[in-house]
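REQUEST ID: PR-0412
SUBMITTED BY: lab tech R.K.
PRIORITY: routine
TASK: structure prediction, single protein chain
INPUT:
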Amino acid sequence: MKRLSFIVAILLSLVMISAIAEAQNISQVLLIPREGKSSNLDLMLSKQVAVMTELLQKAGFKVVVATVSGQPIEGVIYKLKPDLKLSEVKVDDYAGVILPCMATGLFPGPPISPIVVSIVKQAVAKGKPVAAPGGSPHILAEAGALKGKRYAFVDDPLNPRPPYQKVPRFEGAIYSGSGLVQDGNIITSGRCPNIEAMTGVPDNTPELTRAFIAELRREK
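STATUS: complete
OUTPUT:
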């Protein structure tokens, strides 16, 4: 009986050690939301950031939120507290980068942070998956990540409908509609909760996040 108890104790210890080791090896994903005030902040926090985070966590990934200031992003109802500042990010620590639609506004929109562009450039250069819905392909274009690549956007930024103007940063990229588009490890969509609210075109945040997860798993 004592021997059986001893064996059981050893097995439990091995299971605990294995679980700890597995936890320590959980892949991290970097999520970069936009800071600042907007009328649709609660919508984006609840319908996109929260959805992305939940799906990634259920898939076994740890989501790390980083912003320029590191300060909380507060809507009327919802609040998001970043884990760190973008200046503290080491790209090698993350399996991939996901940029919610609120990462940038439509042209002319808020300026794109140079440090976000730098992080995306590094991630792409290292072959890490990058996902960007809604207005966030602006960031990929600014980083040069869309050159020769198919991508999605709410409308063709090089041949926009009035009153919008042509956006030169998309030169050399291949516009492929507003639905989910994947070209290699670059995953884009022209749809998000805000676009759905404005136009009625269905949001596809879950589909984009699942495609991102599938690519993360292929890269392991």
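NOTES: The two ends are 44 Å apart (CA to CA).
REVIEWED BY: pending
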